[in-house]
């Protein structure tokens, strides 16, 4: 049975090579490719693409067949970070310990690099030779909903508009479900679709993804209070300084930790009835809850 | 035989209703929907969606079946205008005689409204009940290439980077082919695909679209020098004030007019061997060349 660390070591590099290769071969202005590449190469846990491949691997599939979807997801995630960091949004100078895209390339190129990454992700999926047209349409349909006004973009709008306001726990969760949850959910959904799972299994996968998505955000909020600046690569306490609502602020640190534990247990419970061939998905839930950055 | 004016009167409203309806039904923050709606409702010639439908109608198809692609194209066009107008790009205060999106909603919401429109356009196409999964994949594949780094976004980067530089005619055309040409080309391509044309016919349609695309840009440049401010809805002479290369500047006004005529004749010539049932596409070429705004 494959260990998560071995799995990550094997596939993280493949995901990254796939992304870099796709950008390299674009017939596009060099400065645009450089700006796209810069943020893709800035590192990161690659949790979304790894989730796609881990889901496929868990169902006994050759997960290399999902590499293009994995790369597309990381491109969409990266575009969202580039736009979120802009001066008119979160106005962040650092991301993963490096200057943000607009600090290096200027705002115009940063916006356009984001636009290009978003657009190209749909090209990647629609170009896949490994899945059927029906599967491509299903994935694109779901992704374009989860990444758009009803999902990630809507979540970012709600997040910006919620700054300085006292949000209820429900409002806070609604923001996170959209802003980060939907793409995580899509990662597992895509892996499930490419593994040919049935609707009941897809529901369970979806439940699992819902819980790890919220766990991910709670852990983020806890790290923002407790983490070491050099480990998380951005200023510690930046949520508080921006007057953002967080789980520790709403529930106390102890309450936030309990909530985190609840989502971890629930995520693992969702996996119980699935015919999985290994523990990769459970291990990813552990990783999300225990990560130091 | 249907006249272009009748055709436009019939379908422009349907395209617009389709777009507004799609935005209205989104489960998204009201301010985001408002920002998306604002720019979609700011008017415009709707030339791209009309081209989709006119191509279908010319081949004897029920062009209502293409409404979702038509709406998607206008959404992508609108997103590109919102982002192009931003302070870090063209820094325009007016668009079609109204304050630009970021002037009304602020930069953050303008960027996100653009992101949401782009993302939703792929959702619209992937949701269509009127075409096959194979057709959807083909359209999405082509659109995501034409709108991205190799097409429209790449053209915008080249345009920004070319400001202040002396561009050759070839460089100028290369920018326009990408920045405006590719989406116009896709409009006709999509109409052709949804009409089931063969590859040779698709080539001819592509040639037609190439010429009307360049004609469109030359006419734009001429209007920027000669047009009336209240007719074109933006400041006359704004290209010159931004030190942008234009056809009149490179070829003289007389040379630009000759080039415009050449592309009009070439566009119509491309249509000659096609089994078209009416003159709609030729009339659209005339409209592009003779428009006053």
Automatic annotation (TrEMBL), chains A, B:
<comment type="similarity">
    <text>Belongs to the FPP/GGPP synthase family.</text>
</comment>
<keyword id="KW-0808">Transferase</keyword>
<keyword id="KW-0460">Magnesium</keyword>
<dbReference type="InterPro" id="IPR053378">
    <property type="entry name" value="Prenyl_diphosphate_synthase"/>
</dbReference>
<dbReference type="Pfam" id="PF00348">
    <property type="entry name" value="polyprenyl_synt"/>
</dbReference>
<dbReference type="InterPro" id="IPR000092">
    <property type="entry name" value="Polyprenyl_synt"/>
</dbReference>
<keyword id="KW-0414">Isoprene biosynthesis</keyword>
<protein>
    <submittedName>
        <fullName>Polyprenyl synthetase family protein</fullName>
    </submittedName>
</protein>
<dbReference type="InterPro" id="IPR008949">
    <property type="entry name" value="Isoprenoid_synthase_dom_sf"/>
</dbReference>
<keyword id="KW-0479">Metal-binding</keyword>
<dbReference type="InterPro" id="IPR033749">
    <property type="entry name" value="Polyprenyl_synt_CS"/>
</dbReference>
């Amino acid at each position: 049975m494959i260990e998560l660390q071995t799995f990550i070591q094997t596939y993280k590099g493949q995901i990254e090579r796939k992304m870099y290769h796709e950008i390299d071969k674009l017939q596009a202005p060099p400065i645009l490719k450089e700006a796209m590449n810069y943020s893709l190469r800035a590192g990161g846990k690659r949790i979304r693409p790894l989730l796609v491949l881990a889901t496929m691997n868990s169902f006994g599939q050759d997960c290399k067949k999902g590499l293009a979807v994995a790369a597309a997801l990381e491109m969409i995630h990266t575009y969202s970070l580039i736009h979120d960091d802009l001066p008119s949004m979160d106005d962040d100078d650092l991301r993963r310990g490096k200057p943000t895209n607009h600090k290096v390339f200027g705002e115009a190129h940063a916006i356009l690099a984001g636009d290009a990454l978003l657009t190209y992700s749909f090209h990647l999926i629609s170009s896949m030779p490994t899945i059927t047209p029906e599967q491509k349409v299903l994935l694109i349909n779901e992704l374009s909903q989860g990444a758009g006004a009803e999902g990630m973009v809507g979540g970012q709008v709600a997040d910006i508009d919620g700054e300085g306001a006292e949000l209820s726990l429900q409002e806070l969760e609604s923001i996170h479900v959209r802003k980060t949850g939907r793409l995580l959910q899509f990662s597992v959904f895509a892996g499930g679709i490419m593994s040919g799972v049935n609707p009941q299994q897809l529901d369970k996968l979806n439940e699992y993804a819902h819980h790890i998505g919220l766990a991910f955000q709670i852990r983020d909020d806890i790290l923002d209070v407790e983490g070491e600046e050099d480990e998380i690569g951005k200023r510690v306490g930046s949520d508080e300084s921006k007057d953002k609502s967080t789980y520790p602020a709403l529930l106390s640190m102890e309450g936030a930790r309990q909530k985190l534990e609840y989502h971890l247990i629930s995520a693992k419970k969702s996996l119980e009835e699935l015919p999985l061939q290994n523990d990769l998905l459970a291990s990813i839930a552990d990783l999300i809850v225990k990560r130091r950055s």
